[in-house]
Amino acid sequence: MPLEIERKFLLVPGELPPTTATEPIEQGYLAVTEEGVEVRLRRIAGQCVLGVKHGHGGLSRTEVECPLTDAEFEELWPATAGRRLVKTRYSVPVRDLVASVDVYAHELAGLRTVEVEFATEDAARAFTPPDWFGAEITGVREYKNRLLAVEGLPEVLH
């Protein structure tokens, strides 16, 4: 099964570093369990996918995504009401990797995070973030997208 290995950080206030791509993202959750399973719909840069993630967080989780047609996405989207978020993703080169900077909108406006995906857990642990990264929030429950979509901003950001 495909494994997602990533670290996530808050973004330091200020201008974004130079980016190589920009992608609008609409994301809604069909199901989330206490056991760490999430089933989500996502439209990213016009492409629709149904995704399933499993695991409690930390560095790695199983992730499987299946493409959807626009019609399939639109049929399922109403089932995500009350469990959605909107953000813009900016791709930023960081050494030999790409950092994904997410700038959230609507109810989550003001939240900016940065994620980096890795090929191995050892590479993730060895990564030294650049100065423009803020506090690490890998595995912090309040900053998981599935919870942000339902509960909104963590109290510290209000």
UniProtKB/TrEMBL annotation:
Report domain CYTH positions: 2-151
What InterPro entries does this protein map onto?
A: CYTH-like_dom_sf, CYTH_domain, NeuTTM/CthTTM-like
List the PANTHER family.
SLR0698 PROTEIN
This chain belongs to which protein, by name? CYTH domain-containing protein
Which organism is this entry from?
Answer: Streptomyces similanensis
